[in-house]
Amino acid sequence: MELDRPLGHAIDEAARRVLPGGVNSATRQVGAPYAFTAADGAYVSDADGHRYLDYHAAFGAVLLGHNHPAVRQAVLTALDGVDLMGLGVTPIEVELAELACELIPSAEMMITTMSGSEATVQAVRLARAVTGRSLLVKFQGCYHGWGDALARNVISKPESAYGRDPLSAGLLDSAVDATLIAEFNDLDSVRALFESHPEQIAAVFLEPIPHNVGALVPTQEFVEGLRELTRQQGALLVFDEVITGFRHALGGYQQVCGVQPDLTAFGKAMANGFPTAGLAGPRELMERFAADVLLAGTFNGHPVAAHAAIATMRHLRDNPDFYLRTHRLGQRLRDGLGEITAELDVDATVSGFGGVFVLYFGTGPVSGYRDLMRNDHAAYAAFHRRMTGKGFLMLPMALKRNHVSGAHTDADIDLTLEAARDVLKEMRA
Ligand code: PLP
């Protein structure tokens, strides 16, 4: 496929006149100009008529595949009902919270927000209110949205994903400094922070699998240790399941590992691409939102997104094969890429979980953030550029993951592995 994009360039030029950087979210300009005009199932098309097999999947939000019939129908149904009231509650919001509480092991109540960032911002506030403490702990490399408190140490190399640490100008030092950084899969690093800041840490935030740096898989000992340590220390354990939620299991990664956090943030795949997210937890904590912790948002619980979320969750609940299938396809990709890189003697490590796969260009094993510093970002960029040229859409940033959706088929996996073999051979030549 030729990647000349005359229309893409024209749209990009027009976009740059009215949108800062030509996009509406920071990482969308990487590898641009892309201007997409159609999406169906596992495939998307751009304005210049190129068709791509989509592993980007809107950063993983599109779990069932684009334009999924059940979600589409639910959205159409929503349009026949109440659009937005801003007063009281709609039955659909109740149904959504009931369903989420039925599916998520640690959930007794859930608030609905518009984005994952809002869910984690609410978690920060609630944790501070509940504990009366101000410090937070997060893990190096994890991303929890754009809220001030957690927008630091997502990276440690300027050339990686966002190019800035803390993530944004305009943050108060006091906001950034109140977040302490620990090492993923290293319980001692968390213990040390509790020791050096006794009775000051309100919560530990964890992406159970840090997919914002690809896929670091936690040891069971690490997750269980965090649960025990936070309990002992009187801090909350917050799982940020904005990516892992609904993607890896109906009840999120907490169902996979059997460890229940105090609070859980959801988003992305929850409504198969429609804008809604949530924060769930036990009644005792969540009731604070009805007392002294502010929960507000004109569009919270929006009926269109709520209908889409219910349709997505029901589809997942009623089709238990969904996970078997996407996990099997993910495993095929991981195994296939592993075989190809071994055969071609490429210095690469394959990682992932379920339907998520990552190709790191560096020697494994990759179990902690430091291991990621061996990744050859230029090699990933070359791999990505060539795969895009062959019609495979993957995340353009190194240290990110790719997603299998419910619409991908075995034939798609065959094509992907064939293309990856050709690309890796070309790169070696
Ligand atoms: N938490 C995690 C783990 C994420 O990956 C993201 C987004 O990428 C967020 C929170 C923020 O979600 P949103 O982009 O919906 O605000």
Automatic annotation (TrEMBL):
Keywords: Isomerase, Pyridoxal phosphate. This is Glutamate-1-semialdehyde 2,1-aminomutase. PROSITE patterns: AA_TRANSFER_CLASS_3 (PS00600). GO terms for molecular function: glutamate-1-semialdehyde 2,1-aminomutase activity; pyridoxal phosphate binding; transaminase activity. It comes from Nonomuraea endophytica. Its EC number is 5.4.3.8. The keyword Isomerase applies. Its cofactor is pyridoxal 5'-phosphate. Gene3D superfamilies: Aspartate Aminotransferase, domain 1 (3.90.1150.10), Type I PLP-dependent aspartate aminotransferase-like (Major domain) (3.40.640.10). The keyword Isomerase applies. Pfam families: Aminotran_3. Belongs to the class-III pyridoxal-phosphate-dependent aminotransferase family. It comes from the Bacteria. It is an enzyme of class 5 (isomerase).
